[in-house]
Design brief:
257 residues; mainly alpha; Rhomboid-like fold; 2 domains; two-stranded antiparallel sheet; 2 strands; 69% helix; globular
Amino acid sequence: MSTKNVNSFIKYIQRLDQLNLLIIINLLMYLSVQILIALKWFSLRWVALPYSLEQLSSKWWTLITYGFFHQGFLALLFNMILLYYFGRILLDFDSSKKFLSIYFFGILLGAFFFVSSYRLYPDFYVIKAPLLGASAGVMAVITYISLRLPHYQIKIRFLGYFKLMHLLIFLVLFNLLQIPLGNPGGYFAHLGGLSAGFIFFLRYLQQRNKTISKPNIYSINKPKKERHIDAILDKINRSGYESLTDEEKKELFKQSK
């Protein structure tokens, strides 16, 4: 690869937002690992999260690395599709810093739930296997944005429109019901991610309440355009994205750019 191509690639990477960069990192990690495994130069055991504290004490880095490696391509694809879709919604309403904080906290809390579940409920485990995958981080993002915008509607092909809150209720119930069926480690990790998103939502409520309780002179003197965007966001929160008029959708899209 020429120096010009390298520089073009670096500039392209620098233009990416945190969401797209995170997805590309996951994809590159998967492809690289498959090559290294084929050459017998790498093992997923080195980066997978062990189920016991004894093993974790000597492999502490797996608290993070497990979230960047996937056992199979379908698991990777499913996680990245969900991360892109719901991460994009989150970034329309919150900062990139908030997005990354929620995602990585979900990975960490998912690890904590996974390891704790084995110590508390060892009889549930038919197969004792380490944990891999970004699901906990994805669940954290989905949970936060679903609580933040409960009436925001998404369209699922062949099924129609669903509010984010309905999707969140389904995810919670599904993961809880899977635990008694055996091999619950991954589902406990999902619950950890769900809990991480809930914790960040509580922090959001605290910050919002503090803002409301204080007189905000700036908000009174906001330009008319900014007040109009705030009204659109409030409408989405109350009735969902599909309740917007075509003009409101265009205005929101224009401002997001």
